[in-house]
Amino acid sequence: MSGEGETMASDTQYSAVHLVAEAKVDSAKWNRIPFAKDVEETVKAVQARGIQVMLAENGARALLILQSLIPPGSEVMNGSSTTLIEIGYEDLLKSGKAGWKDFHAVITAENDKAKRDELRRKSVAADYFVSSANAIAMTGELVACDKTGSRVGAWPYAAGHLIIISGVNKIVPSLDDALRRIREYVYPLENVRSSKAYGVPSRIGKCVILANEDTPGRTTLILVKEVLGY
Fold first, then answer.
1. Which strands, in side-by-side order, build the sheet including 219-224?
2. DSSP letter at 119?
3. The domain 16-224: what is its CATH number?
4. Which residue of 17, 24, 75, 175 has the fewest C-beta atoms within 10 A of its own C-beta?
5. What per-residue confidence (pLDDT) applies to 13?
């Protein structure tokens, strides 16, 4: 697997490009655009595991595809994701133009910590949960980790529909490589971001490997032909 150049959607304050120097990670190894044949092989492998795959040329197109998948009035929750910020998802939510019931806004509006924590637990069972992956193996597994489980808790079962948006830069040859990408690239970047954004370090707390989806139509991967997130 080898790169063919690099493009990226709108970057943000905490996009990888602004964190790599401090995180001291190997972007050339873990953040490249794969050859088209490798993307095609990955798509087939993911689909063989019961996950629908929709290809998008760029982040803007990915956002349009996402809007087409979620009917107006649906209850929507999302995990924290640089990818979602980069494609304009957060701006869309704030605008209210999508017409969705934003579970995340309900959580942040709650000032009582106990009630807020309870809402977070319930949020993983939203009608639609939007997330991103940390790595995608060419053998078809999708992998994501976070510190508390709030971003990956919906993946295995809870959410009615799971929509994962990822750049092709997260494709790696194998599941072992996916886990290595998280340890060697994703975690150091997230640790820097968390320290800057929240004043506390991150850690690899809970991981989910989505190896097979048994519920037809539940999980969709929108795979974007750009460098997105980390």
1. 52-56, 219-224, 161-167, 128-131, 75-78, 101-102
2. H
3. 3.40.50.10420
4. 24
5. 79
Can you read off the two tokens belonging to residue 101? Answer: 């019931």
Position 123, amino acid? S
Q: What is the pTM of this model?
A: 0.93
Taking Cα atoms as reference points, which of 94, 224, 95 lies closest to residue 163?
A: 224
> Rounded to whole angstroms, how far apart are CA atoms 206 and 109?
26
Give the type of residue at 202. Answer: S
Look-up: residue for tokens 């905490």?
A: 14
Residue 154: the pLDDT is 95
- If you average pLDDT over every residue of the chain, what do you get? 93
Q: Locate the domains of the chain by residue range.
A: 16-224
pLDDT at res. 1:
63
Q: How far is CA 179 from the centre of its chain?
A: 15
Q: How confident is the model at residue 190 (pLDDT cuts 50, 70, 90)?
A: very high
Name the H helices within the chain.
20-23, 27-30, 36-47, 59-69, 82-86, 89-95, 103-109, 113-123, 175-181, 187-198
pLDDT at 22: 92
Cα 228 to chain centroid distance, Å, stands at: 9
| Residues 132-143: tens digit of each pLDDT | 999 999 999 999
